[in-house]
Design brief:
mainly alpha; 12 helices; elongated
């Protein structure tokens, strides 16, 4: 399809069809070339209209998946990320044999990634982006973009950990210590591979010591030393553990 499209684009430019907005007499390939010219020029509102027109006019044509993919890309480039996500998912669902499926899966995840807000806000788009990036990795494990997908999953995971950790901090400042320790526990259990995990467990140990719950504190110190031997807090925790173990 790419070779055919390239030929159609050259033919279209040679004939000067871009000088006219009348697409009624164009073939599917010519219409696609016309829409692609708008897309390449950054006229995304116009390219969106033309790609939609192609999909409606030529439902069984070989240009259909090109039009569907670049319709989604037009929305993405225009920062209409929810519409982009819808159109990418539509291609994945309806045109399973398309050469654009892997790219669409990555861009579907990327659309939600762009919608992911700061950690203080509700994180449903963050979780959706992580899920779609993981789907991309699972279905296309040798794709060149897998490394980028893994990096972005880690970044988004860190954002979720930060949100949970700051909730724990707020409860601690309000002196709701049981709730605070519960949230700290969730941080290191759920996001054990993030930088917030050892910090959260360290805070929990500190609260337990302050509340004189020494047996639980020692138990959590032992857990800390097993899980985070290279943490900046390891020496401190080791000293406390050694002191309390001999008492």
């Amino acid at each position: 399809m790419k070779v055919l499209f390239g030929f159609a684009l050259i033919l279209f430019l040679m004939l000067g069809c871009s000088s006219s907005s009348d697409t009624t007499m164009m073939s599917a390939e010519e219409h696609l070339a016309y829409a692609m010219e708008m897309y390449e020029d950054g006229d995304y509102q116009f390219s969106t209209r033309e790609f939609q027109s192609i999909i409606l006019q030529f439902p069984g044509n070989t240009v259909n998946d090109d039009a569907q993919y670049y319709l989604a890309m037009s929305y993405f480039k225009d920062e209409q990320f929810l519409l982009a996500a819808y159109e990418f998912s539509k291609l994945i669902r309806d045109i399973k044999g398309s050469e654009y499926v892997s790219q669409s899966q990555f861009m579907l995840a990327e659309s939600y990634y762009q919608l992911s807000p700061p950690y203080q806000l509700e994180q449903s788009y963050t979780k959706k982006a992580m899920s779609e990036f993981q789907a991309f990795i699972d279905y296309f494990p040798i794709d060149a973009k897998v490394e980028e997908a893994e990096r972005k999953i880690h970044e988004l995971n860190l954002k979720l950990a930060e949100k949970l950790y700051n909730s724990a901090i707020i409860y601690e400042k309000m002196e709701y210590y049981n709730a605070s320790m519960e949230y700290y526990t969730k941080v290191y259990e759920t996001y054990h591979d993030t930088d917030y995990a050892p910090i959260a467990l360290h805070r929990k140990i500190t609260i337990l010591l302050d509340k004189e719950q020494f047996a639980l504190a020692v138990e959590n110190m032992k857990l800390f030393l097993n899980k985070y031997p290279d943490s900046e807090f390891t020496a401190e925790i080791q000293n406390l553990y050694d002191e309390m173990s001999f008492e």
